[in-house]
Amino acid sequence: VVVMPAPWAHIPVDRHLRSTGIVCTPWSGRCGAVSHTADMTGRAVAMGAVIALVIVYALGSGALVSTGSEWYAALDKPWWQPPSWFVGVIWPYNFAVIGIVGSVIAWQGAPARVVSFIVILGVTVSLAIGWAYLFFSPHELIWAAIALTAAAVLTVPLVVMAFAQEWWLGVLLLPYQAWVLIAASLSWGYVVQAGA
Known about the structure:
- The protein is mainly α.
- The protein has helices at about 15-20, 35-65, 70-75, 85-110, 110-135, 140-165, 165-195; strands at about 1-5, 20-25, 30-35.
- The chain has a three-stranded antiparallel β-sheet with strand order 1-3-2.
- α2 packs parallel to α5, α4 crosses α7 (about 165-195) and α6 (about 140-165) packs antiparallel against α7.
């Protein structure tokens, strides 16, 4: 293990890693040579984890959300509820950008950022799917709203990490953050409308 030479100080750790095959721990500023194949394998696994989470997110929410049910149709909707066509557009966008942003971070990011992003993403996906189940199955509106609010709050560090990696990744993820916040507010709106 050697200390990173001064001439490299201006080069982001993750980018220098890609070009030299040297792995650095950003929290210590120290680097050591490792197998390029091992590094690429680890990053491929991280990318696979991101894609798997996106697939679970899409399939889980798709299976649990039932906006065509009689129960949902009878609900009093909050006045800021967006039209169905907008929802049909925003969710494919959300799934796509989560996959893109997560994959870029998994491939280029420092190890700590990669792990943090995947873990937090996994928690937010679990909370979002939990909302879908709580809202549409047992109709636990308050618990559903709490779950989605937690997901919205935990999406903030994902956006921060995206901006820290590349500014355009953060910009791509901003609409998802905005939508989760709106969805959480809608969930609480249903609680108020239902008098729960």
